[in-house]
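Quick question: what would this complex look like in 3D?
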Amino acid sequence: MKLSLLVLVVFVIAVGCNQSNVDLKAEEAAIMKTDSTWSAIAKESKDVEKIVSYWSDDAVVLAPGQPAVKGKEALRKFIEDSRQIPGFSITWKSSDVHFSPDGKMAYMSGENLMTMDDSTGKKMTIPGRGYTIWRKEADGNWKCVVDIWNNPPAQ
Amino acid sequence: MKLSLLVLVVFVIAVGCNQSNVDLKAEEAAIMKTDSTWSAIAKESKDVEKIVSYWSDDAVVLAPGQPAVKGKEALRKFIEDSRQIPGFSITWKSSDVHFSPDGKMAYMSGENLMTMDDSTGKKMTIPGRGYTIWRKEADGNWKCVVDIWNNPPAQ
């Protein structure tokens, strides 16, 4: 075997090693699509299992003034409970996603609107803004691991 | 050059390539130390530049009911303003850090206590809980890129 061939082999491996082979544009498209699909499904508020499936098994939700919701069981109850609130609905829109260089972790900002009926049956809308943190699972799917928001300044 | 040597070279490079060479235990120690030092410096509330230096240049702070604070200039003003609040002090404690596999991004949960004087001069303490997101910069230092909290359930 010639030295030049060895040099080539080493070069090819080194290049493959150095570049992370992560297409962050593609990951961005994937995660934003996942998030917008999730938002649409949550808005429909029909399929609890489907809604819950977008969180990881160890996800934490911190809603203002509410106890921390940790893990699938608690998240399922969290969604079930929200469906009992008269007139409840939620929508959100996310933006500004940032990835770890290896494309395995990400965070994005989001704005949400929660609607419910007040005691007189009148629609009441509560705005929120916050962050979600995401992890790329072994199966290639992005799951939300942290979901936290708070109230914007009073209008 | 013998084939066996080539195989060895390729093997060594491939091993070096596959293992990420990230010591997450060491990163955890580093980031927790950074955070606890930051908390101590913030509690002292003497050196604004030092306090602000723990955030990245593009950091975002979302405090409940406050406008988003984005970037160093706004963060400097945010800290300066907080120092004008009679009796103001803040402390926090973080835990449960999670890293991206490449050890370049992390998030951790935290609990904070803000103290200030109410209108009668009496100390008032406001608890918060939330998340910080961190990025390992090119110089090897961890910087906080997102800082968000909200209010826990009323006691």
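Answer marked as accepted. The CA atoms of residues 21 and 102 of chain B lie 8 Å apart.
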